[in-house]
Each structure stands twice: as structure tokens, then as C-alpha cells.
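TL;DR need C-alpha cells for one chain.
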Amino acid sequence: MINNCSPEMIHEFSLDILEDVGVRLEHDDIHAKLLRAGAKPGHGTYDVKLPRKMVQEYIRLAPPEVTLSSHAGASVVLTTDSPAIYWTNPGMYLWTGAARRELTRADLADVARLCDSLENVQGIIGMAMHDVYPACRDFVGLRTIATHSRKHVRVLAFSPTGMDAVVEMQRVFAGPWLSMGFTAHGPLRWTNLALEIFAHSAGHQIPATINGEPMAGVTGPVTVAGSAAIGNAEILAGIVVNQLLEPGRPLIYNLGLAHTFDMKHATAVTGGPENALFAAISAAMGRFYAIPSASWVSTESLFEDEQAAMEKMFGFHTHAESRVGLIWGMGQLESELTMSLAQLVIDNEMINYARRYARGCHDDADAIPLDLIRSVGIAGNYLESEHTLDHYRSQLFEPAILNRRAREASSVPLCETAHRRVDDILATEAETTMADDAFIELQRIEEFYSRRMQG
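>> reply
TL;DR here they are.
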């Protein structure tokens, strides 16, 4: 149960929606394939109604584990019970600490270099680079991240031909070192672009994140449960499409992108308490379907300030406590629009903080050393004991950037400390992340498709 909202009930309502209302799939070939597979025609040209039995059959084709590796060889296996891993966030702008400006390819390279030094970043998401031709941003972003980092790359898809380039780049290294995904544009609608991206990436065992993103009160009912039912229906339709195109394709269930609408300011809300409820539902539905889950920790704050700290720390803690498998959002400000390198460093610290709390404490003989307590006795101290020396690093959270010193003349706020940490990391000499032949091949693919797509 999620605050009296059960996965079984959401599932049943979503099946009712898909069977009675249907979903719009704006793609001639996929629409036709679904009708041949047992879907029923809907009212509109691209509308289909999905029978309950059909939906359940295709859900069962999605594997319960998803491996996410890097081109350097590191890998994790996502399941419905695996510890949370963390990714960055897409965006269009960079906050420098003094101004917001359009994000460039060089900025994405800096993001990748910084992430390579942050232990909690498992994957880096592509971004909208303003100095790169829009239709090329997916594969150019992929090469940029891979060149400057050893982390998993989550491609931000921009065009079907760009996805062809991504598929060709994927073959340069073994294993699922990259993944992709797309979001339903609701209510109950998958666009031609989304379906083209799924089609062009199918057949290669590339993991795909299937995102439902209802906005409660706008593209979904204003109630959390009502929007969850709509978003779940959209995700189930996306799962059916992907398993129809490639049976057994590894998928990640993501209702954690769902958000609400601020009725006073007419803005999307991504860092509210309701977003944590959507994340909890995402995790619960993933467990219900035996598919790994994802969510999105976000903030409406424009700066690395108290609001960002409150919203993001609450998000990282509650999403992980709800057992979400994959959590996006590191470095994000301004409702996904903006990346801050300093916030990325702060978020890394927040995650370490939350992870220490999640480890809890134990009550075994080593944790409660009665012999030592007897030895120290009354009014003694434990500072010089071997037990303290042996255990303090594992027991006590040691921050990298949080302040624990007394005030000094040189003391600065946390955001300034984080900016200095970024400067220190990026001032070091960039390391080589791949062999020369792989670098040359990725460059060749990028140049070939860039010429082809730009004439």
C-alpha cells in the first residue's frame, strides 16, 4: 500500500483506461502492428484500445533485470530490490553561480569530467547543447560524454536518424554501456517521434526507460492516484509497443517523472511532496510488474540555495526509502531546465548523507562492546580505544564539503565551497577514457552522420 493507494487498484484502473478509452499511437507501422497483434481500433485515426489480456502478455516479456554498464567495464544490475543508483539530469542551460546561459558542448564535457570524479554518479544523461545542430544532439552528446567520462551514458534522443548513429556507436564497446528512453505526451498519447525513436533503437538490446509524465490537474486528474492511473496506462502502452518491436527488450518503468501544476503561478511543480508520492508509486508499480523502476528528484529553485537543499534532500531520501531503483536529478535546478556543477557536487554529498542514514545501526556484540564499556568505566573516554580506531570510518559520516569547523574569517557558504570544489576538479588534467581506436571510430560515426544530416 502507498498511503492507501494500492498497486493492484492502479493496475486495474489503467487496464480499464486502455481497454475502454484507448491510447493514441501516432505511427502508421506500429499502429498497424498492434492491430494485427490483437488491439482494437479506437475512435481516432491512430487510436487503439488494448485488451487486458494483451497488455498483461506483453508486460511479462520485459525482463526483471536490467544491466547498465559503462564503456570502461563497470556495471550494475537493476532489479526491483537493488539499491538505488543515481543519474544526472537533462537540461538546456548552465547556472555558473553568477548567471544562467545556454549550455554548450564544452559544458557537457565539463559535466562528464566532473561526474567521473563523483562516486554517486552511475550514469550521465545527454543535454540540449545550443551549439550543436538539434537533430544531431543525441549522438554528439553520446560521444562527448563517453570521451570525458567512464560512466554509463543515457542518451537524450532528438531524431530517428540520430538514433541510427547511436545504435552504430553502441557497437564500439561491448555490453549495455548506453541506454535511451522517451516520454509519453499525454494524456494517453505517444507521438510519432517517440515511436520512431523506439523503432530505430529496437533489436539491439539497448535498455529503454519508458516514462509516463502526467501533470496532475492538466494532463491528468488533479488527484495523485488519478494521474498515477493515467501515467501507468501510458507506460503500459509504451511497454507493449517496445515488447512488440523487440521481445525481451530490457525496460525501466518510470512514473517518477509525473508532477503537479501550481494553480497560482501556472508552472509545473517537480520538487513538491506529491512528486515523492509519484516516486513511491513508481517503485511499487515496478515491483508489481517485476520491472526495475525509476524516478526524478527535482527542485523549482533557481539557485544552489535553501529551497534546493530542502526539496532535493527530501527527494533523495524518500525516493530511496521507497526503493526506487534508478533516481535521476543530480545537478538539476529550475525544474529540469538548468544544470549547476556546484549543485552536482552538493547532490553527491546529499546522497552520501542519505545513504549513511539508510544503512542504520546494529545491535550485535561488536556494536555494543560491553567489555570496552566495563574497561572505560565511569568518567572515562573512548577516543583512544582500538574499537574507535577500527570503526569510526564505517560508523560516522564524513562529509566532503559540508562545514563542521568553527567560524573563521575565511568561512564561506556551502554553494561557494561547492563551486571551489568544481574548479579544483576541472583544473586537473583531463584523463584518457578510451583506447585510440575506439575514439577514432566514435569520431568517424559522428562526422559521417553530422554531414549526412546537415547536408
